[in-house]
Write a structure and sequence with these properties.
The structure holds 2 protein chains of 2 kinds.
Chain A: H1 3-14, H2 20-25, H3 29-49, H4 72-78, H5 81-112, H6 119-131, H7 134-146, H8 152-159, H9 167-170, H10 172-197, H11 201-209, H12 214-241, H13 246-251, H14 261-268, H15 276-310
Helix pairs in contact in A: 4-15, 5-10, 5-12, 6-10, 7-10, 10-12, 12-15, 14-15
Chain B: H1 9-41, H2 45-50, H3 60-66, H4 75-105, H5 112-124, H6 128-140, H7 147-170, H8 175-183, H9 188-217, H10 220-225, H11 233-239, H12 248-268, H13 270-282
Helix pairs in contact in B: 1-12, 3-12, 4-7, 4-9, 5-7, 7-9, 7-13, 9-12, 11-12
Classes of the chains: A mainly alpha, B mainly alpha.
Amino acid sequence: MTAAAADVALKGRVGDPFSSAWRRRLPLLPALLYAVAITQLPFIVSIYYSFTNLKDKTQSLIPEPTKFVGIDNYKQIFTDPFFRQAVWTSVQMTVLAVLLSLVFGTAFAILLDRKFLGQGLVRTLLITPFLLMPVVAALIWKQQMFSSLFGILDKILTFLGLSSVQFISAHPLGSIVTVLVWQWTPFMMLIMLAGLQSQPGDILEAANVDGASGLGIFRQLTLPHLRRYLELGALLGSIYIVQAFDPIDVMTGGGPGSTNVPYYVFQDSIGGGFRYGSASAYAIVVVIFAIIIATLALRLLSSLFKDEERA
Amino acid sequence: MKRGARLGVGERRSIAIGIGVLAWVVALIWIFPIAWTVLTSFKTEQDAAAQTFHQGLSFGRYSDIAHSIPGTLSLQTAFTNSLVVVVVSTLIVLLLALPAAYALAIRPVRKWRDVLFFFISTKFLPVVASIFPIYVYAEKWNLIGTRTILVVLYIAINLPLAIWMTRSFFMEVPRELIEAAEIDGTSLVNQLRSVILPIAAPGIAATALLCVIFAWNEYFYAIQLNFASGSTMPQWVISNVSTRGNFLAKLSAASIVACLPVVLAGWAAQKRMIRGLSMGALK
């Protein structure tokens, strides 16, 4: 042991502020302070706002003084039918988009797991929608696929002798979910592909030697192995999809049936309402829901890490 | 014995070909909207609107989008803004994430799991929970419409992901190398530079790339906090949607130009991204 290392060990024992525990924590502090300052502090201020009638001063002709309104904002939430509608839309949008992209993503990953001509090119084509700007993805579908004026889908329907469909106005939720699934399937595919490729090959071979059928191997070995990857995909997908904003803004601008909770809160605040007080109350309710979901999700993640330690 | 050995050779081959064909069909369906947009971007506006090919294909729309009407957001401005915001925010994210990952992976602090979960949990906190105070204070400090406010926020959205991923790549650095460096009394900075970074570099590059993708494509903060002089590429794409006259071909060209840098980078790094995305949680 050199003198320097011995010195560190000694300082650790004496317990001065630069002991080894603090030396370990020091590299963590900048990131930790940043995350607290930009995400946690504003959240606390939001809680304060939610008990006031704060409005944007520049947006109203006669500025009202900001005052405490107690739980009025919260009372209003539970009598607001539009908010309930937005919650339901959020649930449908997230569940549908996550499930469908998981199903497609898993199917595509299984196809890509085998060797065939142009495998690399097919993978490259399939991941491309995930790399697009969400705004561009929404515009492509709105203007070039779904549009009844310029949309190719309408052309195809007419060609087949079917009547045209006003996709976005008749099925706003379905249209948005389509775009989300189109973009998130490649993401799920990448995760499932990583899962498939991490399967221990010798066990599969042993099963084959023992005469297990392809379907049997898939059900008994591959699926259980893929479970944690499916869970991971569902978790990461929901974190992002539940906050979807871009496709709604671009495709429907929050028409009926397509306004999810984040979009609703924005309409009430910086999107035009400028009622920060009541919008903050909505946000707090959203956070409470998110904490419940996140607790479940983090418990799942935690079990993944425990598996890792055992391994 | 190989997989599928119980099947005849001919059967095995036809299954393999069948899977290959199916995969190609699926890929062509999935890429179709993008391929169609690329095609539209080379058409004239009349052809684009009518979905015809009478007037041939050209690069005309690409030169159109480079010359904007004075007073509107130009490609050059939006591109510069995006570039500055993306590069600066990604560099700062790495500066914050690398030491943090070190303290979570290589010489872990006590309760490192709780700290890691704290970072991940900031990702679960809905944007709406913190946007109003940020908006109110950005207004107060005259940061609305600046690149600074976007840099500040993009660091916050990418930091959890970056810490999560770099930690997993740091876990792969052999312990013996680090211990040897420690015994030699190498400082933290030198340990990072001479031992850890060379091994974790490909992983860090993949992490940086994902941060770049998310920052380049970000639209929500950009439109809420930065609708004026600091506008970025997504806003520029939207600005090509016109309520008067045909705009489809021009919009297509704008979409391709706006997405191309990130798509090319993503193609180049796809294998590392697979690892980065999954190992981040599973390793």
